[in-house]
Write a structure and sequence with these properties.
This protein has four helices and ten strands. It is an alpha/beta fold.
Length: about 240
Amino acid sequence: MLELQQFQSSEKGITIDEKIPNAIRLGNYVERLVSHQLNHDERIQILKENTQIISNKITLGEIDCLLLQYQQPIHLEIAYKFYLYDASVGTSFLEHWIGPNRRDSLLLKLNKIKEKQFPLLYSTQCESLLEELNLNAKDIQQQTFFKAQLFVPYSKTIEFPLLNRKCIYGFYISSKELSNFQECKFYIPKKLDWIIDPHTQVDWMNFNNVNKRIQEFHQKQSAPLCWMKQSNGEIVKMFVVWW
């Protein structure tokens, strides 16, 4: 996709025993998880992580990770995103995938990696970092560790010519459509828990309580991610959008 090479990592599950600060941003949290996974892969040696590239006290960007995999140096950019399919946005399939609050898009992120984050490796400001690690930029492969959860409009079928259908984690609805699920139970996870699979061991809310809470999010033009437990016990993930 846009000529970006996806990093092939071990799919083996890893137990994380370190304490994660509650105030950490979701993007930084995912970087910690990926770092933990890479450190437990015997094929990989991490050389440098989260290195800011600065020029005249101005931060030009950040190199997420430099590593060796089978002695091949790799510049790895890490991303974990949530996108909703809206056919009214843009004219191409990739342009239709936008962030829950319409301030982000899949195409924008891919272009940022290709046009800003990857070229940073070849900047003069990055030379001292590579010299420190005894690396030459021309020998380094550039890859992405790009994971995403995709959400489609409720009760609509979407064709997927480019993306992996396994990335579909649920659907999204408007606040008006929420009334179709008055018999269900709901839970609004904190943002760090957006990446996990729903489970039953939470404090479920009824329709009236969750509807009030969602309206509070919408007043701030924020679309919450919700878990919804249906009458048959099935739990689904969904966004309730304000737009």
